[in-house]
Write a structure and sequence with these properties.
By secondary structure, the protein is an alpha/beta fold. It has one domain (2-241). It has seven helices and seven strands. Strands 1, 2, 3, 4, 5, 6 and 7 form a seven-stranded mixed sheet that branches. Strand 6 (166-182) and strand 7 form a beta hairpin. Helix 3 (68-85) crosses helix 7. The chain is elongated, with a radius of gyration of 22 Å. Mean pLDDT is 85; it is low at 1-16 and 20-30.
Length: 249
Amino acid sequence: MLRTYSRFGKCPQLLSRLCAFLAIIGGLSGCATRIAGLKHDPEFTYQRLHTDKLAVAGVVVAKGALDLPRESRRAELLSRQISTHRPDLKQQPTSYLLNTIGVTSYKKLLDEYRQFGFLSKARLTQLATSKDNARFIFFARIEKDDIENELDRPADETARSKDRGIIARTTRGLEVSFRIYDLQTLRSVWSGSIKKYDYNRKEYAHQLTAEGKPLDETKLKFPSAPTTDTVLGFVFRGFVENLPKKGAR
């Protein structure tokens, strides 16, 4: 899909990047990641999350077949975000869950979550009865993974602005849903979804060719999109920053 924006038009991707940068350097609360459709069991508190172990069970894609190496790599990406930004939490490696229930059962677990976005009571019971599994298990499911091409033109289209150039931008947008289960109660205690964007850009310095003719915009080459894992990094950071914190009401 091709969209066009003026240089000063609405651009949520730029805002997303600005917020991420400000969060890194100063923890700007006004840019905190929004959780859509948040459902948070009041009994899922910082004290319980801090006291008991958690584990990232898996990260799956709603559309398409299960790809265990890819899902394992992305589970590790989420696990690293938790370790980096919430070192106060006790985390059990995803590999422990896989080894406990076996590869076949683990694949069935991920495929069930991939298809439905939730687990059956029978599947949760199987996990709960497995020896020494973490109490809280985290799932993520990529609901949407969209790529768009955009042209960013100067707002002033007069002859004097013709040397200000055109920016070709390729944006990847992800929508990822999350769910946390409590294996002691066999209930979902936290769920919601996050949207994040990132982009690559290529600037064409002049809107006129060397011969003074307008550029043929249909022939402009767009840059490649950021990788899915790159945008997932922003999504996972937003998820982690919304986990229950000490002293939060």
